[in-house]
UniProtKB/TrEMBL annotation:
Transmembrane is among the record's keywords: yes
Alphabetical list of InterPro entries matching this protein: CidB/LrgB (IPR007300)
Membrane topology of this protein: Multi-pass membrane protein
Places the protein is found: Membrane
Protein name, per record: LrgB family protein
Naturally occurring in which organism (per UniProt): Crenobacter cavernae
Length: 238
């Protein structure tokens, strides 16, 4: 089998999506480390850009790519649950901050939905897009499920979730430096609320405790958003 025939075979195989995802992940990590962790070169953002570039260059459909990438996609759920491990080691600190964390969760969950749907209404987006945008502050598995249930488009919701996460990961450190905040839960919890898994990964880079609080916020925000999302959308007339 020559090189051209091997390339054609690989493109049509589920292995293509799997190898492309793993390769893009490793390369994006190397680029981010080479840039000393610069948030503008966050591994998620760079990894997605690499995958999109390869798919366009190789003329492979997204559906064909996902036949292999779905094995990694399936791991999103267990990876989300695994973020509870560092939180367990910070349980005493969590108990002491229970009330402010609860109030922050309620306010952050509601604000995430209202801001997304409100901006969609303000700019006159179609209802389907607004419904896809509304769950953008929760992690991808939650967002896809919620989007399907309320009439949105899961693919659009996934894109909005990614954009929100990358944006949050980029601005969190400069913003909190500007505000003068350095406490772990002040850094981590709002980051997990607004920027879900991508922001949580960034919080872990800054501090393990901040990452633990971000993981907690991400999980609780998914549950809270699932409860309040239909109510808030009805209230806003979406």
């Amino acid at each position: 089998m020559n090189l051209a025939a091997g390339w054609v075979y690989l493109k049509s195989s589920p292995l293509f999506g799997l190898l492309l995802t793993l390769g893009a992940y490793r390369l994006s990590l190397a680029i981010n480390r080479r840039a000393n962790g610069n948030p503008l070169l966050h591994s998620v953002f760079v990894g997605v850009a690499l995958i999109v570039a390869v798919l366009v260059f190789s003329e492979v459909d997204y559906a064909d790519y996902m036949r292999g990438a779905q094995f990694i996609y399936w791991l999103l759920g267990p990876a989300t649950v695994a973020m509870a491990v560092p939180l367990y080691f910070n349980l005493p600190r969590l108990k002491r901050a229970l009330l402010p964390l609860t109030l922050t969760l309620l306010a952050g969950s509601a604000l995430g939905v209202i801001s997304a749907a409100g901006l969609g209404q303000l700019f006159g987006l179609p209802r389907e897009l607004i419904l896809s945008l509304a769950p953008r502050s929760v992690t991808t598995p939650f967002a896809i499920s919620l989007s399907e249930q309320i009439g949105g488009v899961p693919e659009f919701s996934t894109a909005f979730v990614l954009i929100s996460g990358v944006f949050g990961a980029v601005i969190v450190k400069p913003l909190f430096d500007r505000l003068g905040y350095s406490h772990d839960w002040l850094l981590g919890f709002p980051t997990g609320l607004a920027a879900h898994g991508v922001g949580t990964a960034r919080a872990f880079q800054l501090s393990e405790r901040a990452g633990a609080f971000a993981g907690l916020a991400m999980g609780l925000n998914g549950v809270m958003t699932a409860v309040i999302l239909p109510v808030l959308l009805h209230w806003m007339g979406v």
